[in-house]
Recover the amino acids of this structure.
């Protein structure tokens, strides 16, 4: 998932710090999402209502925090934040009862590797495909 998001946003070496900080936040938000779903479930709400409320609360909170409050910080790449959320939710939580957070490190490493591969690939592609200066015709 990290490679997909990096290529869709545009793999830029100078933004690597932003990508890594944002994906780290995404993994944390993913943990909070699973915990919020668990909390809402303890009130006896239906699965549909729990899912709706958790998504609404999490998306609102994450976008407000990262696009408004932290807009000038390095944690402002929302695509990476939600890649982290989705990775954690799919691999650690919703289908498992109780959630298994041992997979969080694997999700985090996988996302970072995808980001690094995309940036390396773009860098090599740029080096190989640079237009050659036309020879001067005499």
């Amino acid at each position: 998932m990290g490679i997909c998001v990096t290529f869709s946003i545009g793999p830029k070496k100078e933004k690597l710090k932003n990508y890594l900080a944002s994906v780290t936040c995404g993994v944390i938000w993913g943990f909070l999402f699973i915990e919020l779903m668990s909390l809402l479930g303890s009130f006896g709400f239906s699965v549909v209502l729990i899912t709706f409320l958790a998504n609404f609360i999490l998306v609102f909170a994450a976008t407000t925090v990262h696009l408004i409050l932290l807009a000038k910080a390095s944690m402002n790449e929302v695509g990476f934040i939600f890649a982290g959320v989705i990775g954690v939710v799919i691999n650690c939580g919703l289908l498992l009862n109780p959630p298994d957070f041992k997979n969080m490190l694997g999700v985090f490493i996988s996302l970072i590797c995808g980001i690094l591969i995309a940036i390396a690939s773009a860098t090599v592609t740029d080096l190989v495909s640079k237009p050659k200066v036309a020879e001067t015709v005499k």
Remarks:
- The CA atoms of residues 55 and 70 lie 20 Å apart.
- The chain has five helices and no strands.
- Residues 16-41 form the longest helix (26 residues).
